[in-house]
Amino acid sequence: HPEIGSTGMMLKLGLLVILACALAAQSADIQFLDLATEAACLDGSPYAFYFNPNASSTRWSISIQGGGWSYNETLSYERSKTTLGTSTLWHNTSGCECMYVLENGANDETCNCIYMPYCDGASFSGYRADPWPVNSPTAPANATLHFRGQRNLLATLEYALQNHGLADATELVITGGSAGGLSTFLHADQISAWMHAINPKTRVAAAPVVGYFLDHGNYADSSFTYPSWMNYIYSMQNISGALHPACLQAFPNDPYKCFIAPHMVQYVTTPFFMFNSRFDLWQLDNIEQVPCMQDKTYNCSDQERNAITQYGDDFVSQFAIVPTLKGNGAFITSCICHGCPWSDVSLSNLTAMQAFGRWYSGESTTNIYIDHRGPNGDDTMKWSQCAKW
Predict the structure, then answer these.
(1) Spatial contact of 337 and 386, defined as CB atoms under 8 Å apart
(2) Considering 83, 130, 180, 228, which has the largest number of Cβ atoms within 10 A of its Cβ?
């Protein structure tokens, strides 16, 4: 599948999720971390985050960028030459969205906001102290990579706690889109533990956006699958130290499964509200690998349409654990999207953002919203973000 290895595709994906989530984003300044912290991008450049303070608020948001994954050394080396692998190309300012919602569903931007750009290729999960050889015919003979995603996360928290007042937060919402959504699932408990060790009264919640990627085969029934790619990343980047200990105990023979949301979500104790599509466009393209989604014609045969419909049913099956987990919420749309129109799609007379706001405020006892219709609401949805099929 050529787009799996396409750096341009990864960049477009990262930008798509940022644009979809940044409804009224603040402008945040860059803060580089010392290399002594071991925080670094794939190319070894120092990691940095963006911070927008708000002296009048004790609310905080941490927003984690998405942008796919780098599934092997060759793709990691390619990524290291882009904004998803080096900080040398980053701008001095960036948008930063507070994940708090007003009654009408609009964002409430009165918070201290940290935006974490993505440059490690493994959802802030890898750690190797020493550089890793590329050993690829497309890279120089001595080319190496730095797998420091876990340190990027923890060093950012350390700096914000010590220098920006994060220790005084009364509320913290962790969010992220796509690979950043998976990061939110993976690391919410770790971040929560850090916060509560310093301030046990801080309310911590998570809002992963399009981060629920299925453990699933593909349309061609080949071995070229998303789970196999994530398994390789698990070994290549040495990510076991970042995964949930209870999940690792549950999968002693297949620990990489704890890097895939449906397997690890039941172990997350931080309250979360997830946003996702049953017919996630990226997943139909890259996990199910439906030809009409891959070639971007969206002119699907009956067989391809059946596969898409089945994927939606499989999503519901792998999602079934979530409603049994007390205190959480979800909005699952049928729009074929990845950068979804969350301020527009609605169920039970609530947009996704309104549903999240009601969950967070405790106004509603019904917090699981699932659109069980076929793709695009049985073809009634006309938003541009909903792909044809």
Answers:
(1) yes
(2) 180
